């Protein structure tokens, strides 16, 4: 027999004995004591008024002292029963829900909230108005409507800082209608994060639109060369070799374009999730400079690094940070090669903000001021012909911007025509105690 069944069988007689209340047990004990003393007094022949007074006191005291008439079996729960009650309590169920849940009363004050809700809304406080924690008119108006009418409704709101997120909030009335004011006793708010689903939807739409637009030109070029090789240049060996070289470059351009579009879509899909892995930024920049050194030598450009001797740790994805500095340093080498030099500086701020800034500066022709605000847009190029000639897809700086935003950093661009350009990335630093 299992131990739990054995324990249950052993408790059954105890529960049978505990069907009486404490008052009933005390009265029976008092009556039994009175009977014993009365019998002893009768046998000895020494009973009198004191025996009557003792009997009244013995019966009256339990009546006065024990007023609870509930059976003891209802008041004394077994350890297992107490665990079961705690396990099934509303507070335990609320805490176990993975999605944020908030309960408010008819005045809009927060009555309870689970851990997910407190993590999503840091300003949430019990017994404080819910509007202090969330400034979303569509949700607050929905709460008021539910408390007034009792009909469940769904609201949607957009959170823009620190990153853009979309939530669907299902609001349900709780309790009966109050006599005063006609409002329901309270409401429960269930939050559902739609950010990933919306980003996936936008990713599909953007990918189809961008791919169809940017791939049209190289595909048309390939089709033209193929038709030429099948027709007039069928037997022209020199033309065939020249066309095949161009076709190979167009195919590589399409491959780079698709790779960049997929990378950008993946980054946008997880833009609301901040990376948490400690990464040494100095090591990342050094690694990328070593990787791009052959390209710089080929184009006659020297890359100079100025970095602190000790590691500088940030929270991030190493591969994404490598992609950031690959794009920035490669662009500086390609588009600023006329300056013959690229400077990369890593500087940690001494202020309370705790930031590290990596600046990549070239000494090339520079960028006109009217182009600076649009450099991080998809497919925006200052010089379309020069960009395509150097193998650019127009997505490099857009990828840099989205990766930096995901890492809760900033990208700043400074340039003057004829004086080169400077691209700086600022990221929050992990304090030494946390990064150890």
CATH superfamily label of the largest domain:
Histidine kinase-like ATPase, C-terminal domain
The poorly predicted ranges are: 1-18
Q: Which range best describes the helical content: under 10%, 10-25%, 25-40%, 40-55%, 55-70% or over 70%?
A: 40-55%
Got a strand count?
12
Q: Topology, pairings included?
A:
Elements lengths: L2 H15 L4 H23 L4 H17 L6 H4 L3 H9 L2 H7 L4 E5 L4 E4 L1 H6 L16 H13 L3 E7 L5 E13 L6 E10 L1 H20 L1 H15 L6 H33 L8 E3 H18 L3 E5 L6 E3 L2 H18 L5 E8 L6 E8 L21 H6 L6 H11 L3 E6 L5 E8 L3 H4 L1
Parallel strand pairs: 7-9
Antiparallel strand pairs: 1-2, 1-5, 3-4, 4-5, 6-8, 9-10, 10-12, 11-12
Helix pairs in contact: 2-3, 9-11, 10-11, 11-15, 12-13, 13-15
GO molecular function: ATP binding
Protein name: histidine kinase
Organism: Chelatococcus albus
What would you note in describing this structure?
This protein has 436 residues and is an alpha+beta fold. It folds into four domains: 3-87, no CATH class; 97-193, PAS domain (Beta-Lactamase, 2-Layer Sandwich); 197-273, Orthogonal Bundle (Helix Hairpins); 274-436, Histidine kinase-like ATPase, C-terminal domain (Heat Shock Protein 90). The protein is built from 16 helices and twelve strands. The strands form three sheets. A five-stranded antiparallel sheet has the order 2-1-5-4-3. Strand 11 (410-415) and strand 12 form a beta hairpin. The longest helix has 33 residues, at 237-269.
């Amino acid at each position: 027999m299992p131990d739990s069944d054995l324990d249950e069988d052993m408790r059954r007689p105890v529960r049978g004995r505990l069907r009486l209340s404490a008052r009933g047990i005390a009265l029976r004990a008092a009556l039994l004591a009175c009977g014993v003393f009365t019998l002893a007094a009768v046998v000895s022949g020494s009973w009198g008024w004191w025996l009557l007074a003792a009997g009244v006191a013995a019966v009256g005291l339990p009546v006065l002292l024990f007023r609870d008439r509930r059976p003891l079996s209802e008041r004394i729960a077994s350890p297992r029963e107490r665990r079961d009650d705690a396990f099934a309590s509303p507070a335990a169920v609320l805490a176990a829900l993975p999605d944020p849940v908030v309960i408010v009363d008819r005045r809009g004050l927060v009555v309870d909230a689970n851990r997910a809700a407190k993590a999503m809304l840091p300003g949430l406080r019990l017994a404080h108005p819910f509007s202090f924690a969330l400034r979303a008119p569509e949700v607050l108006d929905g709460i008021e409507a539910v408390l007034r009418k009792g009909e469940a409704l769904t609201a949607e709101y957009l959170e823009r800082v620190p990153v853009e997120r979309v939530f669907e909030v299902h609001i349900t009335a709780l309790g009966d209608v109050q006599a005063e004011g006609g409002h329901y006793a309270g409401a429960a708010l269930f939050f559902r994060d739609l950010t990933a689903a919306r980003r996936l939807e936008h990713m599909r739409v953007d990918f189809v639109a961008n791919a169809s637009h940017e791939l049209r030109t190289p595909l048309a070029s390939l089709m033209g060369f193929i038709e030429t090789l099948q027709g007039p240049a069928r037997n022209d060996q020199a033309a065939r070799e020249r066309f095949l070289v161009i076709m190979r470059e167009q195919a590589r351009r399409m491959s780079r374009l698709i790779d960049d579009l997929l990378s950008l879509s993946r980054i946008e899909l997880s833009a609301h999730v901040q990376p948490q892995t400690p990464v040494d930024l100095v090591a990342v920049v050094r690694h990328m400079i070593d990787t791009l050194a052959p390209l710089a030598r080929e184009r006659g450009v020297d890359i100079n690094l100025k970095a602190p001797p000790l590691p500088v740790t940030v929270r991030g994805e190493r591969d994404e940070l490598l992609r950031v500095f690959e794009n920035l340093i490669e662009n500086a080498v390609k588009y600023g090669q006329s300056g013959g030099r690229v400077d990369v500086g890593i500087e940690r701020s001494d202020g309370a903000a705790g930031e590290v800034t990596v600046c990549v500066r070239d000494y090339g022709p520079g960028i006109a001021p009217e182009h600076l605000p649009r450099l991080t847009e998809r497919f925006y190029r200052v010089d379309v012909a020069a960009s395509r000639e150097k193998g650019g897809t127009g997505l490099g700086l857009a990828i840099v911007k989205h990766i930096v935003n995901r890492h809760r950093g900033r990208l700043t661009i400074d340039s003057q025509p004829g004086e080169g350009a400077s691209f700086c990335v600022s990221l929050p630093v992990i304090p030494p105690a946390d990064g150890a």
